[in-house]
Amino acid sequence: MRIYSWNVNGIRAVHKKGLFEPFIAKHQPDILCLQETKAMEEQSEVDLPEYEEYWCSAERKGYSGTAIFTKIPPENVLLGLPKDLVEKYELNDGYGDTSKEGRVTTLEFEPFFVSTVYTPNAKDDLSRIPMRQHWDPAYLEYMKRLETEKPVIYCGDFNVAHSELDLARPKENKGKKGFTDEERAGFDAMEAAGFVDTLRHLHPNTPDLYTWWSHWGNARERNVGWRIDYVMVSEALTPLLKSARIHPEVLGSDHCPVSIDISL
Asked: Domain spanning 2-262: which CATH class is it, in words?
């Protein structure tokens, strides 16, 4: 089974560039998780008859949002975070209510759950670090709750480079948005809870594997990037993991897709 994740930075924009359907035709994901869709389902002109589509869009138009396209019908559809976790972690700050921004879509399949997340950005001035310190444990608790029922695969834009291997210029960016101790600690907590970074599981020391590039200074052409998009799995699934890849050749967004192949 091929599971892909891609922050499309606006699905309508990628579609208008004529790049979305060719990506689907070439890669043929069984399950495709999308972040930053920036659209309601009815606004999308993407037409993929072989896929069922499940959308969780932001209340604010043209902002945030996630979706999962799947060839395999799910047993259950779960949109957003559970209400008790929203209340427990107080996910509303001066920028807005993150629980109303369409940041989580989760589908239940027979062997496992698949969840996709678009993690809030810490902001250049780090003013949303306090929200990250609420959001990261809230989403992790949700994944651990699901894992009590069956294994979990979760993926998306986590808005953090976990280690120095995951960005081209770690020294220059230490303490800046996406590479603060607080954000990295949120990722540490996921691994401490037993979830596995699939790319590093199979490619522990491979450098230059990036998934996001700035628009400035020909960063993508020079591969001066960051790895902030991940596929995580319950440890019980690691024996079934066949591959974990990034796809920097896929254009249309400032992020590239990431994927795993898993045998069932």
From this structure: alpha beta
Residue 162 · residue 196 · CB < 8 Å:
no
Q: What is the mean pLDDT of residues 127-149?
A: 98
Amino acid of residue 72: I
For residue range 71-91, list pLDDT tens digits in order. 999 999 999 999 999 999 999
Domain boundaries, the chain: 2-262
Distance CA 233, CA 161 (A): 18
- Nearest 10 degrees: Cα torsion 155, 156, 157, 160: 0
- Ordered alpha helix ranges (H), 17-128: 20-27, 83-89
Contact 113, 146 (CB under 8 A): yes
Q: What percent of the chain has pLDDT over 90?
A: 99
Main-chain dihedrals φ then ψ at residue 88, nearest 5 degrees? -65, -40
Positions marked active-site: 118, 157
Residues with Cβ < 8 Å from 84, sequence gap 6 or more?
Answer: none
Q: Residue 228 and residue 112: Cα distance in Å, rounded?
A: 24
- pLDDT 10s digits, 168-188: 999 999 999 999 999 999 999
Three-state secondary-structure class, residue 84: helix
- What are the Cα distances from residue 8, in Å, to 24, 118, 214, 221? 13, 11, 14, 19
Nearest CA to 135 among 185, 210, 65?
Answer: 185
| CA 51 remoteness from chain centre | 19
178 Rama sector, left if φ>0, alpha if ψ -120 to 50, beta otherwise:
left
